[in-house]
Design a protein that fits this description.
Layout: E1 6-11, E2 21-30, E3 43-46, E4 66-70, H1 78-81, E5 88-94, E6 97-104, E7 113-123, E8 135-138, E9 154-158, E10 178-185
Parallel strand pairs: 4-9
Antiparallel strand pairs: 1-5, 2-3, 2-4, 2-5, 6-10, 7-8, 7-9, 7-10
Length: 186
């Protein structure tokens, strides 16, 4: 922003770290994993939506937003227990910062950068029709209360390395990617 502040989304959490102010605590959402014309970005949707002019009911000639679920079956630690749970998100404001950036393949920030959070890189499944974006989901993820149903709309899967055109080493075949979100002071 022009006042020397920056805004970012903390995926997988309902709150912001102590260094940031909570702007919005909401629900992660996005396009359906099977829709060919899908939007690719995940959204942090407010818990208290407002509406303009509308007509209830779906008619097939619109774009759709679905809730996001963790697809983490067979994963390690807390991730396994979150399989098919709905994903929360928080929009966070950091003051006196000029840039916020997600760095894949890192758990720490370089000198001069401030850690906002670290986690695991997630995206849509490689075999799904809809495109997706790489999203950094907090390493201590939460879920939304009552959101444990396999609705299978917008889905987050762990991202792992595949060797070939990706150099191995330093990367390792089949290893899950970590990520970090860092901010730069003004």
């Amino acid at each position: 922003t022009s006042n020397g502040s920056a805004v970012y989304t903390r995926w997988g959490k309902k709150s912001c770290p102590k260094s940031a102010e909570l702007v919005l605590s909401g629900y992660a959402g996005g396009s359906h994993y099977r829709h060919t014309g899908a939007a690719v970005d995940a959204l942090c949707l407010p818990r208290n939506p407002e509406w303009g002019n509308y007509r209830d009911g779906t008619d097939g000639s619109k774009a759709y937003i679905f809730g996001t679920e963790y697809q983490t079956t067979g994963m390690f630690g807390k991730w396994h227990s979150l399989y098919e749970h709905d994903v929360p998100c928080a929009v966070c404001l950091v003051r006196s910062r000029s840039v916020v950036k997600m760095f894949p393949g890192r758990k720490t920030c370089d000198n001069g950068w401030q850690l906002e959070y670290h986690g695991y890189l997630m995206a849509g499944h490689h075999n799904h029709i809809a495109g997706s974006t790489y999203t950094c989901v907090d390493s201590d993820p939460e879920s939304l209360q009552g959101g444990h149903t396999a609705n299978n709309g917008h889905l987050f899967y762990m991202v792992e390395a595949r060797c070939g055109s990706l150099r191995c080493p330093p990367y390792v075949e089949g290893r899950e990617f970590v990520c970090v979100v860092c901010s730069l002071e003004n």
